[in-house]
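Aim 2 progress. For DWNN domain-containing protein, the working sequence is reproduced below.
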Amino acid sequence: MAVIYYKFRSQRDDLISTIKFDGTGLTVFELKREIIYANKLINSTDTDILLYHVEDPDKEYEDDNEVIQRASTVLVRRTSGGKRGRGNILRYLAGKPRIAKSQVPIAASSPAPASVVPANEDDRIRQMFNQQDDQWNQQQALMASAQRVESNRQNLKLDENIPEYYICYKCGEKGKHHIRNCPKNNDPNWDGIRIKKTTGIPKSYLRTVDNPTDIVNEPNQNFMVNEEGKYVVAVADKKAWQRYQTIQQSRQAEDDLQIEDPELRDSHSGKLWKSPVRTKCCKQLYSRPYIEDILMESDFKCPHCGQEEIYLDSLEPDEELQRKVDNYVKQLKRKNYAEEEPNKRQHLATMIPTMMPFMPFPAPMSLSTNNKK
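Predicted structure tokens for this construct:
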């Protein structure tokens, strides 16, 4: 769907309307007729409608057969037709295109050679398609050599009263220019900046930045805009990271335990049992992570007896041994807590401030008590 932009001279520069159509362009006659229908000027029989070039407001489109390419901008002017009912609107609604006065007529002595109409129907169809191809090639050649001229008055006016919180989503600058006047529009190598809002992100995970251009070159770093219109970037959750590190350290501490009881020590790794299970074929005892890796590497073949098709869901948990492991871990934690408790109490005692001494004099009695007496 192609469009042509138009604006009446009596309107403001920012009030631009469009005419939508299919194709590469419209003639002046067709564009005037579409503008008349779009603005409901059918009953304005005493009005003339004129089109002008936007780059030269004094130059009129005089030839109704002139083609205006798509994405072009024209100026529209309404004037009086001189006499009542003698406007040109009726001609554009029901008449034929007007030929410009400056057009050179064809001499009668040298008429254009008339095309020979083939008698065969197939030849006529083939000739029609060839004419369409020639017209298409001519239009493509005109479009390739044509240059679009835009009006700078409208774009410059957009930057006059631009608010401070306005952000150009092309380059990321705030309160400096409109996106239509962005200097990056003419840069074909500029990919743009990804700017998104901070919806759903807590404020504690955001850091305010003054100049977002300093972090654009950093990989995988995109800045956002909060509800106040400020530039922010996401920061890591330090509490979650510390909690993760604590869990990993506790697991590492369990792996480094020196197990004295041979019943609680894994014979393969020499560490504490982790989810002890037994195979259904030979009832051999393994830690679940260890035996699962062995079975997947050996195509589900038992490493002890060689039985095949020993799948992971067929491993039987040893609940009794698991209870012993859990009790051992609980006792170890209780022992460590008992050793750390005196140190914590001593630390808290140093943090508690000394109590204030009692006042040497009694507190004064209130006025209400004296009145009662």
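The chain is about 30% helix and 15% strand. This observation will guide construct design in the next reporting period.
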